[in-house]
Structure formats: C-alpha cells, structure tokens
Amino acid sequence: MPSLSDPQTVERLARADEIRLLYEQSFLAVFASLLAAMVLCAVLWPVQSHAVLAGWFGALTLTTMARLLLFHRYRRERPEGEALFAWERPYAVTLLLSIGVWGIGSLPLLHGIPLVHQLIVYFFLLGLAGGSFAVYAPRWPLMLGAVTILLLPGGLWMLLQHEPLTYGVLTSTAIFGVAVVRTGKVLVDRMHQSFVMGHLLSGAHAEAEREARVDPLTGLGNRRAFHERGSEMLAGPGEVCLILLDVDHFKSINDRFGHAVGDRVLQRIAKVIQGAVRGTDLCVRLGGEEFGVLVRVVDREDAAVLAEKLRRLLETTDFCPQPGVGPLQVTASFGVAGPTGDLRRAYALADAALYRAKQAGRNRVVRAWDATSHEGGSGRSMARPANVEMESADGPRAPASGFANDQEGAG
Question: Are residues 262 and 352 in the same domain?
C-alpha cells in the first residue's frame, strides 16, 4: 500500500475521490437533462420545425444512453483507488458530448424563432450551467469546459441579434458567471483539501495503530500484538505452540559495550528469528531481551525443533558489536509450550520451561511437556519452585505471574 505520508500519493488519492464523487452525484443529472429537453421541445413545438426538434432530441437521447451505459459499467465494476483514473476520460467524453448537444445543438433551435423563445432557450442553458457548477465541481477543469460549451454558442448568437434585451441578459449572465466561478473555485479548493485531509488523517490513524503494535527497536510485534494476534491464532484451526527465548547474560553486553551495542544485538536477534520462521508465524519482542514466537504446527515436537534451530542459529551468529572488537557470541535460553488453547496458560508454561533452561545452565531448549533440556543433544530436567521470582547473576527476571508486565529481564 502506498505511504500516505507521500504528498503526491495523497494528491492522487484525493483526485480518485473526486472522480468517485462525480459518478455518485451526477447519475440523476442525466435524467434531469433529458427531462429538461422534453420540456423545452414542448415549449418550442409551436414555433420550431418538428424535424429540427426531433433530430436534436434524438441526438441528446443517444448521448444520454451512452452516459447511462457508462454508469452501469461503473456500478458493476466498482473501481477503487487509482483504478478510478481510467474512468475519468470516458466520463468527460460522454459528458461533453451531451453538453455539446445542448450548447452547440441549441443554435438550430434558436434559428428562426421569436426573440422571447430564444430567451427561453437561453434560460434553459443558464439553468443547466448552474446545475453544472454544483454537479461537476469536483473536477474543476471539466466543470469549466461544460459551462463554456453550454453558454458560449448561445451567448454569441444572442449577441449577434443586436437587441437591447439580449445585451442586458448577456451582461447579467457575465456578472453572474464571474461571481459563481470565483465562489465555486473556493468551494472546489475546500472540497479538495477535505479529501486530502481525510487521507492524511486516515494515514496517521493507520500509522498510530501500527506503531501501537510494533516494537520500535526491532520492528517485531510488541506485547499488545502478542495478546491480540496470539488470541486470534489460538482461536483458529490447528494447534499453536509458544516459544519463549531470553538472551543469556544480556546485561553484561550492555555493561561491556554500552546500550547502543545492546540495541544492535537485539535488532540482529530479531532478524535471525524472522529469517527462520514462516510469514504466518507471530514473532514479538515481549520486553527487554525476551522474545516470543507463536507457531502453528501439526505436532508439538515441530515447535521444539524450531526452537533448537533458533538456538543454534544464535549460537553460531557473529554479533560483532563494533570495529576493532573481536567476535561476540550471543546465546539464548528457550522454553516451549505445547497447544493449550489459552494464551495466558501457554505463556505460563513456556515461561516456567524457560526458567528451567536458565537454571540448568542456559543456552538450551526446555519443553514444557516433559521438562527436558537439550544442549547439543544432551539434556537434563529441573523443576521450578512455585511462586519463585527468577534471578540470575545479571539480575532478576520477571516471574510467570507477571505476564502483564513489560519488565526487562537480564538472565
């Protein structure tokens, strides 16, 4: 999706909104034009050639049918976004053809009839021009073209009659036209700005919603995303397992190299995790140096295999903090919980298994369903005491009961 922070993108979307508004608000104007033509033919029937009236009305009917066909296609396809740009030209062509029958086609109607009937025809054109200001205002150039085609041919005809009454009518029309054009331009600009502002606000809202669910340091989901999307995954089909991992001795990395290096290590870990899982899996940073991965599996052992794969990838990745410093090895401890159907219970089980991995010497995977830790193929088990806050040489780790907290563990 194009970024709504790009001014050109926002302008194009606003233009698409204007085209959509044209189609939505001008449908009834097609029938109003045809109805006005019927009334005008009835008025001119006693004074104008019936063949002229029939030919003029027939031409208008054809252009009206073309416009209705276009509206039918539009409503059937319902284009959105920039796809609307392809619909602007057909709209303009069919509109200007219909307007041309009214404007240029009015010349045969004006020929050979009394002055009062000529003025009636011109007043019909003025009425259509006024309607054009309202209906076609979303696309300013199109609206100006329609009004010009409507009034210019008849206005020149009236001017050539050299009648004081026609001069007065044309003068009033010119004054009215200038006022309407100036006012209309202001309204059109305000309408365009409202479309632009709407897209800017929509983009800002979408960005705020995204940032509310994304960890700004790593780009992974955050705790809120873990709760929301994790619950959705558990409610879906299949079995979902949770992998928790906590970076070993992370506090010592911050102490030795500084927090900026620690941040780069966390970013690199996030990339390693993302590169090893599927796009349908959920990767989050739960806080501090603790990460979580929710995976949909056929068998819970698949989650343990993935956790071991992640452990080996982190163990063998060169986390070089800065030039001139030797390779930095980073390891992590893992806790894996099998399918439970409840996110909080899955977290508690995985967190307990992670605690056992820390207590058993770190850099290993512990599966909650059998409490067996693995490191390079060997393993041992250790039970976690109830209600014990996890600690390591680097500082306290959040207990399983602190699921809603975002504390930084240091294990």
Answer: yes
pLDDT attached to residue 348: 92
Is there a single domain that holds both residue 266 and residue 164? no
Residue at 249 is within a domain: yes
Judgement on whether residues 135 and 97 belong to the same structural domain of the protein: yes
- Average pLDDT estimate for 238-263: 90
Residue 107 has pLDDT above 80, yes or no: yes
Distances from the Cα of 94 to the Cαs of 41, 70, 91, 105, 409, in angstroms? Answer: 22, 8, 5, 15, 68
pLDDT at 180: 75
Average pLDDT, the chain: 84
What is the span of the domain harbouring residue 386? 223-402
pLDDT class for 5, splitting at 50, 70, 90? low
- Asked if residue 230 and residue 127 are part of one domain, the reply reads no
Residues 229 and 367 in one domain: yes
Tell me the per-residue pLDDT of 149-170, one tens digit each, with 9 for 90 and over: 999 999 899 888 888 888 888 8
Cβ contact 251:262 at 8 Å: no
